């Protein structure tokens, strides 16, 4: 698994250890990229990577060679559970990704693959094997991930509620994905984890992770993959400026009232058997259906194609053009 930060100031590193000297344990390594590296590696295709915005983290997804990715923001740290024990977020994400999801039928005991839980009476036996989990979406304690209007109304609100649960998000249900504590199976859904055009030179910001979440969820549903949310928790330490956030978000707040119905109505063709093919088809729909809202979406649709071109260039597949077809039965059935 690769751990990816969209920014890595030295004072942040010191919060994770007792010294400002970064020591890499045996068996681990690190890579540090800046904008010059992005331009050097991608050339003209670097235009699809956002500038001066946390959306640039998706460049790390692009160049990583690991099977799993864990991305976390630079103002997030280790949290503690109600017993006072430090939470191993990395281990929980791995557990979520290695256990199946149940997107086709909701289990009222939540995740049936957790210790002490199972499928309840009435759950179809034909669906108990589950499907491979592609995304593990974690939560946060302390500073909530609110939009600017909610921040302004509730400036002192903090999240202290720890819910010991993991749920599969049902097929056909969208969710607001937050990139500050996120794990995913790079080989299965990585090409759909594009955080869009945000920040410097763009009319919108703070919708990078949500855009990726909407795209990835539609593609997971089409390919028969699962998305989990809940544990693990991290500690979100810093509240961003709501007035700055409002300036970044205000167009997105209006646009999302049309964007979300668009994603709810997306139907991908049966020829879309890989995340790359799904994403290319989705990019065409974005330009066609969302383009009339604002010229930005035409530009975004083009960037989505450039992103896939860059992905295929850096991650060539010998199995099939535009990626190998997704295997829907990778997850092992529960053993009791």
Automatic annotation (TrEMBL):
Q: GO cellular component terms?
A: cytosol; Golgi apparatus; plant-type cell wall
Question: Could you tell me which residues belong to the region Disordered?
Answer: 316-336
Q: Where in the cell is it found?
A: Golgi apparatus
Keyword Cell wall biogenesis/degradation listed: yes
Q: Name one GO biological process term.
A: cell wall organization
One annotated GO molecular function: UDP-arabinopyranose mutase activity
Task: Name the domain of life this protein comes from.
Answer: Eukaryota
User: Where does the record place Basic and acidic residues bias?
Assistant: 327-336
The protein's matches in InterPro entries, at most eight in alphabetical order, are given as: RGP_fam (IPR037595)
Q: Principal place where this protein is found?
A: Golgi
Keyword annotations from UniProtKB, A to Z: Cell wall biogenesis/degradation, Golgi apparatus
Question: Is Cell wall biogenesis/degradation among the key words of this record?
Answer: yes
**What does the sequence similarity comment in the record state about its family?**
Belongs to the RGP family.
Q: What is this protein called?
A: UDP-arabinopyranose mutase
Q: State the species of origin.
A: Centaurea solstitialis (yellow star-thistle)
Taxonomy of origin reads:
Eukaryota, Viridiplantae, Streptophyta, Embryophyta, Tracheophyta
């Amino acid at each position: 698994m690769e751990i990816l930060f969209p920014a890595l100031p030295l004072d942040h590193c010191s919060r994770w250890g007792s010294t400002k000297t970064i020591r890499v344990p045996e068996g681990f390594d690190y890579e540090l990229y800046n904008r010059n590296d992005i331009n050097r590696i991608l050339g003209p295709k670097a235009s699809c990577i956002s500038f001066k915005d946390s959306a640039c983290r998706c460049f790390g997804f692009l160049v990583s060679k690991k099977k799993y990715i864990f991305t976390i923001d630079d103002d997030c740290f280790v949290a503690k559970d109600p017993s006072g024990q430090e939470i191993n977020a990395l281990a929980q994400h791995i557990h979520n990704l290695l256990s199946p999801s149940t997107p086709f039928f909701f289990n009222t005991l939540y995740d049936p693959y957790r210790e002490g839980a199972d499928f309840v009476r009435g759950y179809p036996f034909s669906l108990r094997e589950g499907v491979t989990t592609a995304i593990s979406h974690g939560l946060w304690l302390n500073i909530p991930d609110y939009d600017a209007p909610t921040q302004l109304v509730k400036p002192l609100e903090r999240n202290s509620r720890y819910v010991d649960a993991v749920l599969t998000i049902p097929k056909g249900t969208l969710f607001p994905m937050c990139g500050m504590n996120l794990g995913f199976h790079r080989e299965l859904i990585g090409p759909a984890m594009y955080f869009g055009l945000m920040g410097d030179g763009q009319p919108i910001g703070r919708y990078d992770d949500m855009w990726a979440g909407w795209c990835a969820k539609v593609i997971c549903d089409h390919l028969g993959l699962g998305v989990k949310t809940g544990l693990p928790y991290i500690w979100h330490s810093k509240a961003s400026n709501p007035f700055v956030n409002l300036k970044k978000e205000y167009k997105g707040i209006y646009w999302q009232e049309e964007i979300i119905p668009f994603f709810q109505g997306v139907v991908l063709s049966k020829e879309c058997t890989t995340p790359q093919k799904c994403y290319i088809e989705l990019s065409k729909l974005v330009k066609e259906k969302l383009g009339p809202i604002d010229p930005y979406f035409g530009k975004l649709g083009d960037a989505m194609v450039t992103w896939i071109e860059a992905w295929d260039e850096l991650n060539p597949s010998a199995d099939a053009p535009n990626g190998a077809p997704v295997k829907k039965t990778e997850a092992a059935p529960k053993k009791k």
